[in-house]
């Protein structure tokens, strides 16, 4: 095992930039779901006794009692009447300290109205509390509030994103034997606007408003696995390749479904340009979708993965890692290096960092003699920028005597490998039966 530093034959500036973004994202998102305690309580006294006009305006900030029993500051994203003729409203709120997937509807009785802060506090010339905010005011709120995990967005695209995705529409789905709570807005067709739960056929991914419709569908649906070609089978695990052009409806349904659990991703209506790789657990009843990733048929930027998702009921079982590893196995077959499309979701980023760490450090641990970044990249199909950013984040690259070197102390490698966790389900490349996509080919 070489304790001596190995030479790196590549310059660093591009990856240093990439590295910065990746590290900050991971750190922020790691803490996203942890309640951070009660901030701003000291303001209660100051505001006490002031009149609050109901209903509250969109953009208002107020403390709301959360499921941890503590009060947390929220921003009101949307409001609606509790029923058509009721005078009372409920409010869709974003908890300032938490990830957007915890946004939810709350009622006034969960709020501490003494803590209400409106934008109008500073704009007395406004035409009263019921007036809609001016665009300028709205802009001000949005710009003063660039949330955790959103650093990669400029203010304009963030506004657009928030406007489009502000309210979760479907709150739960049924898929196969699972019922799952959803995390984010998904742009289902308008006729699904007023349903809170959708029923999916787990094989063709058709979705329905009522359970009886699904039961009727299941009696006549003849699919028992995703459409397309089975390109991998290992025990009860299968992967199917589905062409967005040949199976348009299936792939569009998959996108609607996936968006319920993915933030920050443009939903591609133009599924023609993509291949979808569907991971299934198979038994005597059929092949049950666990997750998927999509991949552009032709990527100018060298992306080997566009969207990746493990459905919530299958998370924490190593399937996300399996999908990432699988995407690199495809790249190896294509004899290309690849990288995931940016921005990555928070969960995606954590998984990728773990994957890169495990793969690269496993090689460094076993390797004797010097090795270059380029060689590491060729062996793994991991793009050089990602190799460098991973090693930099682990502080395994140092600048010594005018050269960048990998400092691969075996003890340090072991420590990092342990921290990265094990890879879970492994991809057996010998079981992958696949030829790269060719336009017009089979
Ligand atoms: Zn079906």
Automatic annotation (TrEMBL):
Instruction: Please provide one cellular component term from the Gene Ontology annotations of this protein.
Output: nucleus
Please report a single Pfam family linked to this protein. Answer: Tudor-knot
The record places the active site at 341
As its record notes, the protein acts as a catalyst of: L-lysyl-[protein] + acetyl-CoA = N(6)-acetyl-L-lysyl-[protein] + CoA + H(+)
Q: State whether keyword Transferase applies.
A: yes
Q: What is its main location?
A: nucleus
Keywords assigned: Acetylation, Activator, Acyltransferase, Chromatin regulator, Metal-binding, Nucleus, Transcription, Transcription regulation, Transferase, Zinc, Zinc-finger
Q: Enumerate the Gene Ontology biological process terms.
A: DNA repair; regulation of transcription by RNA polymerase II; response to UV-B
Q: Where in the cell is it found?
A: Nucleus
Question: Origin, by domain of life?
Answer: Eukaryota
* UniProt domain MYST-type HAT: residue ranges: 165-436
Q: Name one GO molecular function term.
A: zinc ion binding
Segment Disordered: which positions?
118-146
EC number(s) reported in the record: 2.3.1.48
| Family under the similarity heading | Belongs to the MYST (SAS/MOZ) family.
Q: What is this protein called?
A: Histone acetyltransferase
């Amino acid at each position: 095992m070489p304790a001596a530093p190995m030479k790196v034959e590549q310059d660093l500036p591009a990856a240093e930039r990439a590295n910065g973004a990746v590290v900050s994202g991971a750190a922020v998102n790691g803490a996203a779901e942890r309640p951070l305690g009660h901030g701003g309580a000291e303001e209660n006294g100051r505001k006490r006794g002031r009149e609050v006009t109901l209903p509250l305006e969109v953009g208002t900030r107020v403390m709301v009692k959360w499921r941890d029993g503590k009060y947390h500051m929220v921003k009101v994203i949307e409001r609606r009447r509790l029923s058509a003729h009721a005078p009372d409203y409920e409010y869709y709120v974003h908890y300032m300290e938490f990830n957007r997937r915890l946004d939810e509807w709350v009622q006034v009785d969960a709020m501490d109205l003494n803590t209400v802060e409106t934008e109008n506090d500073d704009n007395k010339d406004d035409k009263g509390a019921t007036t809609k905010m001016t665009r300028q005011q709205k802009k001000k709120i949005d710009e003063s509030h660039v949330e955790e995990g959103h650093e990669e967005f400029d203010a304009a695209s963030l506004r657009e994103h928030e406007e489009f995705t502000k309210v979760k529409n479907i709150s739960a789905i049924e898929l196969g034997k699972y019922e799952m709570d959803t995390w984010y807005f998904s742009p289902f067709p308008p006729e699904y606007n007023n349903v809170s739960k959708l029923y999916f056929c787990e094989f063709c991914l058709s979705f329905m408003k009522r359970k009886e419709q699904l039961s009727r569908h299941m009696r006549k649906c003849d699919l028992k696995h995703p459409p397309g070609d089975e390109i991998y089978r290992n025990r009860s695990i299968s992967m199917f390749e589905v062409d967005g052009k040949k199976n348009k409806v299936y792939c569009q349904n998959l996108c609607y479904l996936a968006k319920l659990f993915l933030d920050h991703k443009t939903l591609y209506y133009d599924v023609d340009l993509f291949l979808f790789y569907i991971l299934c657990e198979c038994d005597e009843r059929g092949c049950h979708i666990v997750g998927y990733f999509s991949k552009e048929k032709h990527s100018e930027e060298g992306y080997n993965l566009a969207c990746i998702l493990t459905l919530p009921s299958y998370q924490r079982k190593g399937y996300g890692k399996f999908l990432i590893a699988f995407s690199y196995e495809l790249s190896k077959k294509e004899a290309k290096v690849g990288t995931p499309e940016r921005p990555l979701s928070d969960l995606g980023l954590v998984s990728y960092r773990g994957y890169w760490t495990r793969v690269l450090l496993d090689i460094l641990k076993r390797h004797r003699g010097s090795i270059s970044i380029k060689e590491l990249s060729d062996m793994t199909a991991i793009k050089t920028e990602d190799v460098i950013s991973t090693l930099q984040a682990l502080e395994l690259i140092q600048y010594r005597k005018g050269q960048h070197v990998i400092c691969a102390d075996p003890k340090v490698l072991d420590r990092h490998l342990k921290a990265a966790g094990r890879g879970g389900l492994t991809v057996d490349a010998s079981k992958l039966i696949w030829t790269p996509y060719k336009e017009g080919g089979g």
